[in-house]
Amino acid sequence: MNQGPTNQNPVNQGPMNQDPTNQISMNQNPMNQNPTNQNSMNQGPTNQNSMNQNPTNQNTNYEQIYQEYRQQGEMQAGQDQMNTAANAGKEHIVAVRKNNDGDIIAIQTSAGRELDYVSALNEAKAGALANVDVYHRYGRDILRSEPDGVQENNLDNLPTF
Predict the structure, then answer these.
(1) Which of 126, 112, 120 is nearest to 143 (CA)?
(2) Which residue would you say has higher pLDDT here, 5 or 146?
(3) Longest dimension (CA), the chain
(4) Are 112 and 92 in contact (CB under 8 A)?
(5) What is the mean pLDDT of residues 58-71?
(6) For residues 23 and 9, is the Cβ–Cβ distance under 8 A?
(7) How many CB atoms lie within 10 A of CB 107?
(8) What gap in Å lies between CA 152 and CA 161, rounded to an integer?
(9) Is 125 exposed, middle or buried (0-12, 13-18, 19+ CB in 10 A)?
């Protein structure tokens, strides 16, 4: 290949791809330049500025950051639920009673009332209970807590009475 005063390789000759040393410079860009400007098409481990390296995040603990994010969300969701129920004047479920199979057969409200499952369904349908939904599945209506990502307020996880 002729390496005269002008670059003879016309491939990708834009301002980002010019090579002052007139070496083969296919696919060079500011994010993937190596200090010698040799053929940087596929340098692998010898490339000093690899796009996969991020020196500012080398020691970042992604799992810890994500767990903190989840905890903050759970706290906020719990506060939002309490505020919503308090502002609307609605009772919310604070405890459950289960049978031997683990099925919820009764609930206790924040006002201290104990309701059988069917009465709780009817009150939830009427909008009298906060933070629960009624949905139809398996040929019947089912009471469940609103999906908010907080495990602690799921009906199965509430204290028993």
Answers:
(1) 120
(2) 146
(3) 92
(4) no
(5) 85
(6) no
(7) 28
(8) 16
(9) middle
Structure confidence at residue 50 (pLDDT): 47
One-letter amino acid for residue 92 of the chain: H
Q: What is the 3-state secondary structure (H, E, C) of the chain?
A: CCCCCCCCCCCCCCCCCCCCCCCCCCCCCHHHCCCCCCCCCCCHHHCCCCCCCCHHHCCCCHHHHHHHHHHHHHHHHHHHHHHHHHHHCCEEEEEEEECCCCCEEEEEECCCCEEEHHHHHHHHHCCCEECEEEEEECCEEEEEECCCCCHHHCHHHCCEC
Please tell me the pTM assigned to this model: 0.49
